[in-house]
Every structure is written in C-alpha cells, then in structure tokens.
C-alpha cells in the first residue's frame, strides 16, 4: 500500500484509529504479550477477551505508553505513538483502569477537571496570576466537566467526594474523567467488574452513547453477554497470543475459544473434586428442604 492510499483511507468514515503491529511485551523470561496486531476503526466498538493472565491489561499498557513494548509498533490515526502516557493522552487515547484510580479525597467534579488538564492550554504563570484568560479557561473547563457528568449520570454527585461513591459510580466516574481529555479512542479495562446487572446494562448503553459521539472504543471484559451485545468485533487473547478475531457470532462459535475458557478437563483435577463436593452439598441441602416441606 502506498502512502497516498493510506492518507486517503484515514480521512474516510472507516479510518483506522488504532493500529498495533506485532506488539510483544516480555518481563524477564515471561512473554506476557506475543506478536499481537490489532486494528480499531472509526465508529467501532472492539472487545478484547481472554482468560485471567492472558495479557489483556499488559497489551493496554503497551498501547498507552505505560510500558514500552519489547517489539512492535503502535500508531494512532496513522502516527506512531511515543511511549509516554501523557503524550498518548494528548494524541487522543484515554483509558480507565482495572483497579480504579481516582483521587479519593477530591470531589467528583475535581476528578473530571484533572482529566481535562491535557486539553487546557493555560500555562503555569497564567494559573498563578489567575488572570482573565485563566478564569475563562477554568469556567469553560468546569462547564465541560459538568456536561460529562450529565452524560455519565453523575451530575447530582458533582460535589461528593469520590471515595463516598458506590463502586459502580466510581467506575462511571473513571469513564467521565477519561472522556475529559476529549479522546478519539477510549480503552476500558473491565468497566463492569463488581457491577450488578442493572449497572452493567447502563454501562452498555453508556458505551453505545460514547461510540455515537464518534469515539472508538476498545474494551476488555470478562462478562461475555456484555461483550457479545456490545462489540462489532472481538479479539481473543490466550497466553499472550491472539487466538481468534471476528464478529461476536464467529468468536462465540469457535471451539478453540470455548476450549481456552473451559480448559481440557484433567483426570482427578481439583476442580472436579470441588465441583463434586458442591454438588453433593447442594443435593443434601435439597433433600433437607424436601423434608422441611414434607413436615
Ligand atoms: N509489570 C509486570 N512484571 C512482570 N510480570 C507482569 C507484569 N505485568 C503483568 N505481568 C504478567 O503478565 C501476564 C499477563 O498479565 P495481565 O495482567 O496482562 O493479564 P490480564 O489478561 O489482564 O488478566 P486479568 O483478566 O486477570 O486482568 C501475567 O502472567 C502477569 O503476571
Ligand atoms: Mg487485566
């Protein structure tokens, strides 16, 4: 492909937003991510799934400059990214973390304002002198932050301390803060972990709404119903390697994916014994209930 066609492709509706090429991440002797390539196009919601320890979060860390990949290249909208988190954010990629990282003792609004700092142009002197330029910028920032709190359904909690929010709302606040950097691509690492079914459903709607605003989304999640409802395309990582990639239908039907999740049963495996114990206990409880009912 020539440079000209690449440039043309990037300006069309199906432009490539993220292109990871042969990303490998080694920690000493351990290869956590092995030669993974993945593309996210404009308007897409792409899922990244795989068993625990498959390398999903490590791959995110390679995309966002938190890790410098041992090999490979990551480009955002056709430009190779410098491996520095603040430069990646500035370029247009925002993320949330598997382990929530909010400023617990700041308010909800302040947390979103922190997320805006890469987009405010006012410098140090302007901030110190608190001149009219700074005040205008600050007002505009607050207005935008409030808009994002409305969008994520947290506006009424703007003045609450982040640490006082229930867990599900802390996850939403992480999303609001990520959106505050005005990204073109949002990376979500297990956004529904710890949520109840209603909250998960609301998060699904929120991700659709984010996509409808023109932000591409790459999402890691263990909740398969959530992933298969939401995503246009799903990639499966197993032991650091991309095993399968395709539409939800294709991925769901792939026997290698099923095997990777369930694993091949071993003879006398501890899981089997544990399962047998649980089944026996349930059977006994069931029998006791029947006796109770009979009384
Ligand atoms: N900084 C690090 N140093 C050494 N090993 C690491 C580091 N980060 C991750 N690993 C290892 O890399 C592998 C992949 O971990 P990773 O957290 O990316 O998996 P994951 O797919 O996100 O799993 P989960 O679904 O449990 O979040 C694991 O074996 C992990 O122990
Ligand atoms: Mg992870």
TrEMBL record:
InterPro entries: AAA+_ATPase, ABC_AA/LPS_Transport, ABC_transporter-like_ATP-bd, BCA_ABC_TP_C, P-loop_NTPase. Transmembrane segments: none annotated. Keywords: ATP-binding, Nucleotide-binding, Transport. GO terms for molecular function: ATP binding; ATP hydrolysis activity; L-isoleucine transmembrane transporter activity; L-phenylalanine transmembrane transporter activity; L-valine transmembrane transporter activity. GO terms for cellular component: plasma membrane. Residues 276-289 have a biased composition (Low complexity). GO terms for biological process: D-alanine transmembrane transport; L-alanine transport; L-isoleucine import across plasma membrane; L-valine import across plasma membrane. Residues 18-264 form the ABC transporter domain. This is ABC transporter ATP-binding protein. It comes from Streptomyces sulfonofaciens.
């Amino acid at each position: 492909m020539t440079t000209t066609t690449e440039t043309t492709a990037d300006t069309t509706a199906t432009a490539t937003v993220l292109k990871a090429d042969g990303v490998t991440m080694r920690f000493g002797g351990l290869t956590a991510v092995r030669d993974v390539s993945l593309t996210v196009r404009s308007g897409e919601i792409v899922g990244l799934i795989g068993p625990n320890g498959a390398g999903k979060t490590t791959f995110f860390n390679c995309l966002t400059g938190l890790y410098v990949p041992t090999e490979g290249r990551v480009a955002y909208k056709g430009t190779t990214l410098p491996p520095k988190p603040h430069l990646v954010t500035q370029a247009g990629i925002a993320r949330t973390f598997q382990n929530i990282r909010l400023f617990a003792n700041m308010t909800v609004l302040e947390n979103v304002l922190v997320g805006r700092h890469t987009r405010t142009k006012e410098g140090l002197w302007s901030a110190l002198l608190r001149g009219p330029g700074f005040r205008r910028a600050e007002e505009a920032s607050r207005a935008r932050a409030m808009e994002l709190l409305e969008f994520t359904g947290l506006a009424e909690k703007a003045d609450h301390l982040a640490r006082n929010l229930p867990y599900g709302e802390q996850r939403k606040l992480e999303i609001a803060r990520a959106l505050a950097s005005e990204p073109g691509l949002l990376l979500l690492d297990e956004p529904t972990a710890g949520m109840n079914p209603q909250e998960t459903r609301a998060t699904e709607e929120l991700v659709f709404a984010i996509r409808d605003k023109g932000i591409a989304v790459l999402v890691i999640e263990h909740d398969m119903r959530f992933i298969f409802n939401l995503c246009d395309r799903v990639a499966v990582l197993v032991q650091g390697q991309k095993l399968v990639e395709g539409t939800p239908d294709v991925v769901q039907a792939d026997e290698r994916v099923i095997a990777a999740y369930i694993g091949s049963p071993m003879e006398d495996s501890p899981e089997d014994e544990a399962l047998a114990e649980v089944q026996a206990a349930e059977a006994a409880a069931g029998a006791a209930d029947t006796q109770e009912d009979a009384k």
